[in-house]
Amino acid sequence: MNINNLLKSDFIKNMSFQIIGVALAQLLPLLCMPFLTRIYSETDFALFTTFMAIGSIFAVGAGCRYQFAIMLPKHHDEAKNIFTLSIILNLIYILSLLLFFITFPSLNFNLGKKIYLLPIFVLFFGLWNSFSNLSIRYGTFKINSIAKVLQSIIYIIASISLGLLKLLSLGLIIGKILGTLVSSIYLFQKSEIYKINTNYSALKVVAQKYVDYPKYSFIPSFLDTASSQALALVIIQFYSKQDLGFFGLTFMVLSAPVSLIGASFKEVFYQKITFLINDSKFNESLSLFKKSSIGLLIIGLPVCIIIMFFGKEVFSLIFGIKWGISGTFASILAIGFFIQLIVSPLSSIFNAANKLKISSIWQTLYFITTFVTLGIAAYAFKVEIETLFYIYIIHELILYSIYFILQYKTLQNLN
Predict the structure, then answer these.
(1) Inter-helix orientation angle 10-39/241-257, to 10°
(2) Which residues 6+ apart lie within 8 Å of 199 measured at CB?
């Protein structure tokens, strides 16, 4: 394939839309972060970090994972039935979650009364996720990109406004919820789905046909997300609110390139690799995997190097002197986020190849080893927080190397 054909390919065009959209969605909050770090304290960031850590874990259950099967059917009617099923299950899940918090008020995860905002966030996130996957199926990546940018803009405006109004402890949380809500409404309007199929028999058919998603993906993904929040959860339990707040900013900044490059890449890669596997073009799918992994390595390496060597200076300059501690944390953790950037976007291979069991085994292993390793370090040995970060990095390098090998072998065995 010559360079002109490559640049004109749908894959490159879709990738461009995604990268531009996610770039703006991530860069806008980062550009406004110097304002937020001067409006909100490290304690406010600690609360927001706690809310997002717990919220992201519970959000895994929204739609019972059926929304990720929307891409698979060859016929659009079947895909719409899966979409409908995910929406209905999301509503049932939210009601169950709310009832749980009402029944057991003491289980508030250090959020107090703010725990009742969590089902609202999960509801809007679940709706957004279903509409987003439906949009990906139809290849409307431009709409998806606009929705992500819109989410960030609303988050910024709401957070800064509420901060200036001195609603400090809730400003970041409400901003996040409002951003997700407005983005969901936009995707709903663009989907042009104003009437959905509520035929029980049709929904039962797709529920049974794609039962592997809740069966093999629900619990492992729940564990996987909990693992991704392991540092935050351990810091919440064993370290100070100040440490948690400083880590919160570190996590937001380091997550930006992962979302910018990884998340946008994953959606387009998932569409492309699914079509290649469905058409039995296994050699082409393996070639795409190799090129994609090398591309992610080249793109992410400069960011990783800059943060590793100049993290403290960059954070102090941009966010304020007191946030230099966050920069020190970032310089240690950069390599861990770098390997996630390379390996995580390629994990959609397991969905496309319908090999969810392999992924679920690794996710379960990752969950167990992450919490055991960090738990022993923090609870039994009471290590300093920076030492905890070094232990975490070693663990990430080992586990994600195993994950990468499993991805490669899965594609290789399709031949």
Answers:
(1) 160
(2) none
For residue 276, count CB atoms less than 10 angstroms from its CB and return exposed for 0-12, middle for 13-18, buried for 19 or more: buried
Alpha-carbon distances, residue 305 vs 111, 297, 311, 312, 392 (angstroms): 36, 12, 9, 13, 18
Q: Please name which of 3, 25, 316, 308 lies closest in space to residue 148, comparing C-alpha atoms.
A: 25
Q: What is the per-residue pLDDT for 21?
A: 77
Q: Please state, in angstroms and as integers, the Cα–Cα distance from residue 259 to each residue in 23, 251, 300, 377, following that order.
A: 8, 12, 11, 29
Which residues have a Cβ under 8 Å from the Cβ of 41 and sit 6 or more positions away? 168, 245
| pLDDT-derived band at 2, boundaries 50, 70, 90 | very low
CA–CA dist 311, 325 (Å, integer): 9
Write down the residue that tokens 């431009």 correspond to.
142
User: Length of the chain in residues, anyone?
Assistant: 415
> Cα–Cα distance between 176 and 152 in angstroms, integer?
8
pLDDT tens per residue across span 15-56: 667 667 777 887 899 899 999 999 999 999 999 999 999 999
Instruction: Please report how the helices 282-319 and 10-39 are oriented relative to each other, as an axis angle in degrees rounded to 10.
Output: 20
The two tokens of residue 141 are: 């990546």
The span from the CA of 138 to the CA of 136, in Å, is 5
Residue corresponding to tokens 């959209």: 21
- How many whole angstroms separate alpha carbon 11 and alpha carbon 7? 9
Q: Which of 88-97, 134-143, 217-226 has the highest mean pLDDT?
A: 88-97
91, exposed or middle or buried, with CB in 10 Å at 0-12, 13-18, 19+? middle
* pLDDT greater at residue 13 or residue 413: 413
What SS3 state is found at 173?
A: helix
Per residue in 53-82, pLDDT tens? 999 999 999 999 999 999 888 888 899 999
What is the residue type of 3? I
Instruction: Say how far apart CA 254 and CA 337 lie, in whole Å.
Output: 7
Record the pTM.
0.86
Break the chain down into helix, strand, coil percent, rounded to 5. 85, 0, 15
Residue type, 240: S
- For residue 398, the tally of other CB atoms under 10 A from its CB is 12
Q: Retrieve residue 115's tokens.
A: 């725990």
